[in-house]
Amino acid sequence: MGVFSHKNFSSIGSLNTKISNYSGFTAIEIVCTISIFLIIVAGILKIQQSFQGREKQIRTRTEMTQIAGWLEEYRSIHGDYPKIVSHNDYQGSVLCSALHGNIDPDGIDLDITKKIDLVTTSLQEIDGKFVDPFLSDYIYYYKLRMNNLWKNPSYILISKGPKGQQNPQRDLIISTNITISPTGKVDGNPNGDIVLTDGGFL
């Protein structure tokens, strides 16, 4: 039978210490690993949000192009675009109602036999308004909000883009960075808005 000496116990203790040193992680190593992991996750989320924002902008332009096409059809049928006399929160309702064939350009209810629903694809609608992918209703102007100098019937369709998301109190006035000539031509910096007229995107 073997005999354990004090020397043997010292050797065993030394061996255990070496094993524990190699098999464990220090608190600093754990914190560093978690920090790196969180940085990677944050980077992935930021890239994903950027892609999602870009995708929404593309979808918004596609939807606005569809609405523009329906407005041209509406004008060919009724002789004019839907008119907006008072530019307020109801303007989106007028646009939606007109393109669904419920009213004429002057806002008068159409006889059921004359109703032509021009909306041929699925657009999100909330409270009787077309809503863009950023969850804001499309802003529609007939002629110019501040005066009636346009020589030809025209319109402006605006999506406030990311800055208008879920903000029902957003400013409905055209950005001061956008100017409109008497012929209806739009120039300037839309400042984040997506602007479309009968002449195309700004």
Task: Outline the structure in words.
A hairpin with a 2-residue loop joins strand 7 and strand 8. It is elongated, with a radius of gyration of 32 Å. It has one domain. The chain has a four-stranded antiparallel beta sheet. Strands 1-2 form a two-stranded antiparallel ribbon. About 4% of the residues have low confidence. It is α+β, with helices and mostly antiparallel strands and 202 residues long. It is built from three helices and eight strands, in the order H-H-H-E-E-E-E-E-E-E-E. The protein starts with 5 loop residues before the first helix and ends with a strand.
What is the N-to-C order of secondary-structure elements (H for helix, E for strand)? HHHEEEEEEEE
**Helical proportion?**
25-40%
Portion of residues in beta strands equals 5-15%
Overall pLDDT metric:
76
How many domains would you count in the coordinates? Answer: 1
Largest sheet: 4 strands, antiparallel
What is the oligomer described by this structure? single chain
Category from helices, strands and their pairing: alpha+beta
The count of DSSP E runs of length 2 or more, i.e. the number of strands, is: 8
Q: Supply Rg.
A: 32 Å
Characterize the overall form: elongated
Count of helical regions: 3
Q: Span between N and C termini?
A: 96 Å
Unreliable residue runs = 166-173
Spatial strand sequence of the major β-sheet? 3-4-7-8
Comma- or semicolon-separated keywords:
single chain; 202 residues; alpha+beta; two-stranded antiparallel sheet
